[in-house]
Amino acid sequence: MLFKKLSKKITAGITAAALGFSLTFSVPATAEAISVGDAVGIGATIFSASQAYKQLDKQFKAFNDTEEGREQLYQQYREQEGVCTDYEINARMDRIMTNLTRAVGQVDESIYDKPYKYFVSNKEELNAFCSLGHVMVVNKGAFNLLTTDDEIAAIVGHEMGHGQKNHVIKGNKSALNKAVFAQLGSIALNANAITSALINVTTTNSIQHDNKKLETEADDLGWEYMLHTNYNIGATAAVMQRLSELYGGKERNKFEAILKPSNHPNTDKRRDNYVKKLYEYSGKHATAKDGVVTINGKTFTTVAATDSMSSAERAYFVLGNLAKAYHNGKNHATAEVYNGTVYLDDQPIITPAYGDEDAYTLADRLNEIK
Q1: From CA 192, how far away is CA 195, in angstroms rounded?
Q2: What does the DSSP 8-state code read for residue 173?
Q3: In the chain, where are the structural domains located?
Q4: Beta carbons within 8 Å of 326's beta carbon, 6+ residues apart
Q5: Which of the residues 24, 52, 146, 218 has the least number of beta carbons within 10 Å of its own beta carbon?
Q6: Would strands 298-302 and 292-295 be described as parallel, antiparallel, or unpaired?
Q7: Tens digit of pLDDT per residue, the chain (370 long)?
């Protein structure tokens, strides 16, 4: 998931029922030798886990692969999350899903075998997630806190990457495998409280590491999907900048990272990864950092902030336009101004806002350095 841990009220309930034990492990306070009874207990645990996996796999497949299961999950999420009834927001969501479905279909035609079931929830947090069965939920808060549909499309494209690669099933099965391993390890070692804590920390960090791999794959897929749309590809970096400004994106200290691991890669690093993709897409001509857009190593402009967007966030939209212009060979055209917007051929580059240099100055500089 991109902006919160996957809601596990459904899948965690299945997991607990199937495994028959909590995923929080308790162990004896003192170490003792392993008895015959302990050995029998270990065998019983292994057998129970084996049976649980079979049941869990069956239930996962029902939710993920059958229309009845997908509809059940969809309705349950609607009841759980609440449904936004705002006409304009829902119309925007429909347009975004239509555009992205078409884009994903150019990369992965299997999307048409299992179309996404989606809705906008009533929750005010900037959040979205994709669950089993291609059930997609985007919070109303995403529409209220993000300035453009381009950024929402970047979020949704990321979540569709999770959906297309069945990351929910992969992530949960990976977590269960490691949880059972930790449980058996605690029994086998007859671990004391300190050993148990170390086992749990190691297992949790390993699970989060696996989840980060899935997040990175979804980032890469979301980028690829955006390339097949008319949305500004700079929105991929811009939305990460927005998240960093709202919630922070710096590295935590190593001790905190070990004891309280995040299931997402660092936000600033994800933004910088998108900036690298934009730079490469432009043929290594254009990039941006801290609100400054550069072309061929020379400053094009320092973008002004607006009431709704920081200088850094807005600069990534300018970078997205430049990257597309260079990628499509529009840089060979002369930069001109139409209705207050700087263009390269038919590709808009920047519409100056209050605090920016005027459009003609920017067009002249673009012609000098491009």
Answers
A1: 5
A2: H
A3: 11-233, 267-369
A4: 281, 282, 283, 285, 286
A5: 24
A6: antiparallel
A7: 543 333 333 334 333 333 222 222 222 232 333 333 444 444 455 555 566 566 766 777 888 899 999 999 999 999 999 999 999 999 999 999 999 999 999 999 999 999 999 999 999 999 899 988 999 999 999 999 998 999 999 999 999 999 999 888 776 655 555 554 455 444 444 445 444 444 344 434 433 445 778 889 999 999 999 999 999 999 999 999 999 999 875 544 443 333 333 455 689 999 999 999 999 999 999 999 999 999 999 999 999 999 999 999 999 999 999 999 999 999 999 999 999 999 999 999 999 999 999 999 999 999 999 9
First CA to last CA distance, the chain: 39
| H/E run at residue 129 | strand 128-130
Please name the amino acid found at residue 40: V
User: How many residues can be counted in the chain?
Assistant: 370
- CA dist., res. 313 & res. 335, Å (int): 23
Q: Where are the alpha helices (DSSP H) in the chain?
A: 11-19, 36-65, 67-81, 87-107, 140-145, 149-164, 167-189, 193-227, 235-247, 254-259, 267-281, 311-327, 359-369
| Cross-sheet strand order for the sheet of 335-338 | 335-338, 341-344, 347-350
Q: Regarding beta strands 135-139 and 117-121, do their DSSP bridges make them parallel or antiparallel, or are they unpaired?
A: parallel
